[in-house]
Write a structure and sequence with these properties.
- The complex is a heterodimer of chains A (502) and B (352).
- Chain A is of the alpha/beta class and 502 residues long.
- Chain A is 32% helix and 25% strand.
- In chain A, a hairpin with a 2-residue loop joins β17 and β18.
- Chain A is globular, with a radius of gyration of 24 Å.
- Chain B has a domain of 236 residues.
- Helices cover 71% and strands 3% of the residues of chain B.
- The longest helix of chain B has 28 residues.
- The radius of gyration of chain B is 22 Å and the shape is globular.
- Classes of the chains: A alpha/beta (502), B mainly alpha (352).
- The interface between A and B is medium-sized, with 37 and 30 residues.
Amino acid sequence: MKPVLEIKKVIKTFPGVKALDNVSLSIYEGEIHTLLGENGAGKSTLMNVLNGLYQPDSGEIFIDGKENMFLSPKDSIKAGIGMVHQHFMLVRNHNVLENILLSVEGLKSVLNKKAIRKQVEEILQRFDMDINLDEPMWKLSIGAQQWVELIKLLIRDCRILILDEPTAVLTPQESEKLFDFLGRLRSEGKSIIFISHKMREVMALSDRVTILKKGTTVKELTKGNFDEALLAKLMIGGDDIPKWERREKSIGEDILTISNLSVDNDKGLADLHEFSMELKKGEILGVAGVAGNGQKALAEVITGLKLPKDGYIMLGDCDITKACCRRSMIAGIAHVPEDRKSMGIAPEMSVDDNLILKSYKDPKFRKGFIQNRKTIKKNAERLIHAFDIKAGPPGNPVRLLSGGNIQKVIIAREMSLEPIVLVALYPTRGLDIGSAEYVHKVIVEARAKDMSTILISEDLDELLKLSDRIAVMFRGTLTGIVDPENTTREAIGLLMSGEMTG
Amino acid sequence: MIKFEKRKSTSKLFKTSAPFLAVLLALITAGFILLFAGVNPIKAYSGMLQESLGSAFGISETLLKSTPLILTGLGVSLAFRMKLWNIGADGQLHIGAIGATWVALYSGLQGVFMLPAMFLASFIMGGLWAGVAGVLKAKIRVNEIIVTLLMNYIAISIVSFLVYGPWKDPNGHNFPLTAQFADFARLTSFFNTRLNTGFLLAIVLVFIMYILMEKTLWGYEIKVIGNNQNAAKYAGIKIDRSIIGVLFLSGALAGVAGFSEVAGVQFRLQEGVSSGYGYTAIIVAWLAGRSAIGVLVVSIIMSIILVGGDSLQILMQLPVAFVNLFQGLILFFILASEFFIANKPVLLRSKQ
């Protein structure tokens, strides 16, 4: 059988980095082909080459055996390649149909919405999808938004679909549904390139797996020839994955009490509704839930970025409900924000400056109202060393660092505050295994010093591995708290989807 | 087909040489235009340099012209650092000039207190004028570009109203001018030239603003806010307060430019107290990379062009528009060079 898409010996360099080094990949008709690799292994670059966003320095791309160069995304679309990005490319204020229209080829200047609506409805029917085409995008759940992205590809008859970590934002149930759907697409002869970190999914779905490491293809394996252990080994290159033991220690008294908390968002809808929870001294409290079910609001209220409408938050004996950000920080609450680049750092400023973002007013970093460059630099040197941050030359703007190192900057800064409570949102999202392990290590080590952590994550493996207890959120309420030792993924999944309360 | 890609790193040599290359290209391009106008560009450029730097008088005129540019440039740079687009420096200069004039003519002050009082009046009034935009931005998110721009026209009209109406010099043969300032309300000039202590004041303010923007906690906060508002909020920085403070200080500096013009050069208030300095300040701030020292250097270069441009008008009978064209070309090439510093062109060959 001839491959529909074949990539041969593609090389792509950026100044100083060989992002792709002799990468080859063959995709056949009607297969789900998983691309596996750590962050920085070259997956995104490869996908951007397939999208026509980047042009390789050398190497060849064949479509149906014919050599093809993608000079722009247009060429890639013409060849029948479509991609669902991790961050959806949707117009939030437009309705579903209008969003789909965007990807329809050869539109006339006067739109025939009716015909297209019919076409879309056919696709919806064919795959038993239940989506109201007139609903504005922002009202849709994340899962439904993903369906829209997929419909956008189907309506222009894509033959090769690329999905970049599609399950990162889904509940286990939604993921199952997605997998069913992908299976049906496969049986219709579509080829799917599936990018994921989650071994379980990779095992369940893939017909073939290609492993990338440091820009080169390590191995291509066919179903039956691989298992989780082998894949993990190939991906991280034989390094042992350290395991963190849950600590054998009776948990202390309540350190943070959240009671009946309600928070409204900008649209006046409830992000949190009568939410109550206690955090104990020296525990890691995992918070599971599909992204967008109030986790962000919870973190923002605790860290003082947002004011609650109702309810209160106590840190020890101190009411911090109304405290502004700085006050709650001084009170000992650190925050690893969800979006590290858009909130956690000042991207154009140096690593040194970013490491004092929260403590620049500390007397040790100033003489009166003049900054003390000497101690700021010392502080940076100490943290860069302690947290093994690859910071580049002095004065390097922090945006030039890799994702993992940016996260290390943020965590180093937050931990340097010696907080009582750490609120960490998705602290390992998008990080490679090595960096993620490092983040875990820091959190676990701080627990030994009686720091309490609220770990908000969508990665169940991470939660099960680290948490002393796991709280599950759904639509701004607490649906249950489970003991990670005596629970199953399915049980957590049901709590996450609100179909059960515990 | 040519495509542009973001550079991951830029060599130091390229980064430092690019602006000079840009100015050179602007000179060459302007040279062609001069040729079309029937003027020998080499002669024109040497004439410009001769006029602006070739004599003690020329140098004094150049530095004199740079004074309002430095002051307004500092103000605009400060605001730009926080991504507050204050394009109303010209209006703020006018209001500062009104404040200084009021103190000079109507406060009844005498002697050594006069100049400091005029300075303060211009500082505060320029600051309050821009502060309006600051409060509107901070409290109800009104776009500061619109407010500062439109308030220029109001400020200019107020000056017109005053010099045609209540402040018109009764002994001025009905010209739209205020009375002349008393000697103690004039800045001291040096060596029989028009250059005066206003220039020294500007240098001192460059130094103060350098400290403020680069060394202080507030300067750090301003950088963080300008860089990423979310991060600033997250770090507990009070953004609204800084918006008002920065726009106040930005306007105050432009107001001081009004003071140095009326007390150092014109000795009275009249229409056209600024020849568009507040707008040139935008170019200055941008070319200077929003740094205080940069503003000083760029302002002096700009006034070389302005003063030298005068000689083109007189000696070569070129229209004043040529000076504007020259400024425009330099800005255009510098902006282009910034683009090339950040991006590189890649040649693509199609195999199809």
